[in-house]
Amino acid sequence: MYKDVKELYWWPNMKREIASYVSKCITCSKVKAEYQKPSGLLQQPEIPQWKWERIAMDFITKLPRTSSGNNAIWVIVDRLTKSAHFLPIRESYKVGKLSKIYLKEVVSRHGVPVSIISDRDSRFTSRFWRALHRALGTRLDMSTAYHPQTDGQSERTIQTLEDLLRACVIDFGGNWDTHLSLAEFSYNNSYHASIKAAPFEALYGRKCRSPLCWAEIGEKELTGPEIIQETTDKVSQVRKRLEAAAPFKRSMKEKVLV
């Protein structure tokens, strides 16, 4: 929020006041996890050479079931640009169904990655999943609860996204999956400290062109079709949750993990 507001306004103690405002988000306090530095030495994984070459993924589960039957979110993040896809799924999906979604949403858009970092979810360790990626030429790197330091950057990014998405689920209620694309849009167009840019800008080399200045939502009355107003309201909601989910107060040493 601070990065967006400072582009347009200034007042004394602005950063402190924005931090105070964000910290009072009641919804976010319900879902925000405690962050603990992993024990042991952090193992810095290989730095990606290109976009969507090395990715990380995880499931956010035990969400309220929607009318479409979705009760989980599959989060897939590019480790270089931090751009991400939020895919609504059912926890009951078998690995075959997930593989089709992966090919449609990731491979068709970005190509085949060199490596994937994930936890040891049974779907990621299944024979089918391993065979698929062996055929594609993708290396699977598994982290474990005993070695959380495997990839601090990916773990930190996904944890922040989990806070954001759980807050959005509370806000959007029973039809949260119909608004998930707006959460993805808001995240990908929000400033990311580790890359000093928005993920969209890092991915495409330019700022996202949108029909209005998202930073000024709520400051002016918008005209146009009802769907534009509804979308504007939802995006504004998501951005507030994103700012509250981000670790606003953190030492410089911990920021390296983002």
UniProtKB/TrEMBL annotation:
GO terms for biological process: DNA integration. InterPro entries: Integrase_cat-core, Integrase_H2C2, RNaseH-like_sf, RNaseH_sf. Residues 44-207 form the Integrase catalytic domain. One of its GO terms (molecular function) is nucleic acid binding. This is Integrase catalytic domain-containing protein.
